[in-house]
Amino acid sequence: MSEYCVVVAEGARARFFTLERPDLPELEGGPDLMEHLSLANPRHRAHDSKVYADARSGRNRTPGGQGHAYDEHRDGHDAEMEHRFARDIARQLDGLARSNGTRRVILCAEKRMLGFLRNGLPELPGVEIREVQKDLAKLGPRELQEHLARDGLLPRRRPPAGPGS
After folding, report:
1. pTM of the complete model
2. Domain of 130?
3. How far is Cα 11 from Cα 45, in angstroms, rounded to an integer?
């Protein structure tokens, strides 16, 4: 069981962590963020030519040289893909939080993804949800824990007790 669950998400990937206390904290230090799961959204960062049949966008030219703009609704399609990914993230979070006895969830994502996540979260009775509007997806578990501890969202990691302590 872990009191804390941390989700770090961006449009292409989401990572799920819990804060685990070691069996022998005096020898091992801790607590430590442990990664449990990573989800990928391969369509998010795919090059236009891999997602769309025609990679052109923005303007079209007529034979007389006059240009006119057209809207292919690619932004709407991209938003829908992120929205679907956020629903997948929310389902995974729900399962992890319920199975782990989680009391605090920390969602870390840039503004747009955080909005999608907020709208897709299931009801988690008795669970406090905190939001961090930053893309922290590239941080490793220790760096992420240090960052969140500086903001007062997680306990700091304590080093193991030295000899003679």
Report:
1. 0.76
2. 4-44+74-150
3. 8
